[in-house]
Amino acid sequence: MTTEPIGSRSPGTAPRSTLDGALRLLDYWTTAYRRTWRGSAVSSFVVPLLYVLAMGVLLGGFVEADPATLEGATGYLAFVVPGMVAAQSMTTVFGEVTYPVMGMVKWHKTYYAMTAGPLAVPHVVLAHLGFVAFRVAVTAAVFLAVVAPFGVHESWWGVLLALPAQVLIGLAFAAPIYAFSAGLKDESAFALVFRLGMIPLFLFSGAFFPVANLDQPLEALAVLTPLWHGVDLTRMLTLGTLEAGPALVHVAYLGGLVVLGWWWALRRLERRMVV
Amino acid sequence: MTLSEPGSMIHAADLRKSFGGFEAVRGIDVDVRPGEAFGFLGPNGAGKSSTMRMVAAVSPVSGGTLRILGMDPATDGPAIRARIGVCPQEDTLDTELTVWENLFVYGRYFGLPKAEVREKVEELLEFVQLTDKAKAMVDDLSGGMKRRLTIARSLVNSPELLLLDEPTTGLDPQARHVVWDRLFRLKQQGVTLVLTTHYMDEAEQLTDRLVVMDKGLIVAEGSPLALIAEHSTREVAELRFPVAAEGGTHEPLAESVADLAERVEVLPDRLLLYTHDGEETMAKVHERGLEPIATLVRRSTLEDVFLRLTGRTLVD
């Protein structure tokens, strides 16, 4: 039994910046990730293979499209792979910022422990979104690597740039959905978010077929969705058909969503926790 | 009082907290001095937890003045929270991490270097007698162990001021005594303790000075002994009767013994006779032919002070 004075060492300090505060949460996230990464590791290798085999090779075998309609791809497989990469960046995010956010704010109160010390809501949000960005980057990198042997990447520098593009796509979804989850009192709304939000986006945002196939006004609606911007950006990069104008529009659109989502997330979580 | 006493750990003047139209704290004045153990005693809903959340710099003040370690929580919240320790009423431990990991990641929130946190974690595990549980998952700990771990976690930044909200609520008597023992040691080391409780024995055991809160206001302030001396008598003779019938009370019984005590409190199942000599009073009660089903002579406690001040019992 110790009789050493407990109050003998340094006290804590207030973080110097939002980034400094978020970095103090790095050990939490790496410790938590070390306990769960094995489960996600297998699926991040197997899922891309299953998708590419089913949609790209087997279903794609029936697709006899004129390459002129495939947005620059030489075949359906090369067309669908970047679409699936972008779509996966979105679905990964839906999993990371719905139930887990509610768990940390409502069920396990992890956020309350994190903000009992010198950290505050902006640090918590930045660290959580940083972790989501990391998860998106890892799953996208694995996907792009696993499909490389199929010869679907036309541009190597484009593939390298597609990785930060996935992080941008991921954050464009993560920040607003995080904000939604952070203020939510009850988890039953998540089922609707998945069924009426994620699945229609996944199916109709140009990942599996050119949005030009849709009748107006559905095509106009499809090109307004964030996932279409992500799909088109990713496709231009992996096919080496990058055009500066449209690419800038995609980046600005997705970046705008990140900024708006960030602002909304801080507001929602502060209203929930600082009472 | 608007000026802070020099060196106050906590200074509150006319402190208020409202939630919408409901005023949970209705203007309280408190000064906590360095090194003392200070208590907020009161029933559930008295405003203790709302006060503690404001003092912990996580809940904005609705009115009045609040200074913690001389700083204003409205502008210096992070700096205040960096130097205090908080042991919340609900355990917010991370159940997916081990005991050791819970302390380590928490220490890192304070901006302390890894090596220093590691050393501190070992020291704290020993202090709360959980060294052999370092690798256990939090879910496998008993309630008392979880509470000790939460206390250890609140000490990771070597705080000058430790806030404990209901530190032993829900613990069995043995686990409570272990927690009390640890808190005594912290007090001996000079840590200022501020705790809320609705247990009078906890307040008597742990605090040098306390305030009694009721409905968002402070109704009395002083040391446990001084409060008892001021608001109660030395002894209490308790006469237990069958619970009064619906609509009836034990008032008529109380009137028949009113002259035997300084004061008589009437509860649904008993009379409390406040007197300097309980045995003597009890003898006189028996002479009058009253036949209670049980009797007890005891010393006055804070429970009696609370009953006197508010007309209600602390724990229903």
Write a brief caption for the model.
Chain A has 275 residues and is mainly alpha-helical. Helices cover 71% and strands 0% of the residues of chain A. Classes of the chains: A mainly alpha (275), B alpha/beta (316).
Please describe what this structure looks like.
- The complex is a heterodimer of chains A (about 280) and B (about 325).
- Chain A is built from eleven helices and no strands.
- With about 280 residues, chain A is mostly helical.
- Chain A has one domain (about 40-275).
- The radius of gyration of chain A is 21 Å and the shape is elongated.
- Chain A starts with 17 loop residues before the first helix and ends with a helix.
- The mean pLDDT of chain A is about 90.
- Chain B is an alpha/beta fold.
- Chain B has two domains: about 10-220, Rossmann fold; about 235-300, Alpha-Beta Plaits, CATH 3.30.70.
- Chain B contains eleven helices and 13 strands.
- Chain B has helices at about 50-55, 75-85, 100-110, 115-125, 145-155, 175-190, 200-205, 225-230, 250-255, 280-285, 300-310; strands at about 10-20, 20-30, 35-40, 65-70, 85, 160-165, 190-195, 210-215, 215-220, 235-240, 265, 270-275, 295-300.
- In chain B, the strands form three sheets. Chain B has a six-stranded mixed sheet with strand order 5-6-7-3-8-9, with helices on both faces.
- In chain B, a hairpin with a 2-residue loop joins β8 (about 210-215) and β9.
- In chain B, α5 runs parallel beside α6.
- Chains A and B meet through α2 and α5 of A and α2, α3 and α4 of B.
- Chain B: One of its GO terms (cellular component) is plasma membrane.
- Chain B: Belongs to the ABC transporter superfamily.
- Chain B: GO terms for molecular function: ATP binding; ATP hydrolysis activity.
- Chain B: Keywords: ATP-binding, Cell membrane, Membrane, Nucleotide-binding, Translocase, Transport.
- Chain B: InterPro entries: AAA+_ATPase, ABC_transporter-like_ATP-bd, ABC_transporter-like_CS, ABC_transporter_ATP-binding, P-loop_NTPase.
- Chain A: InterPro entries: ABC2_TM (IPR013525), ABC_2_transport (IPR000412), Nod_factor_ABC_transporter (IPR051784).
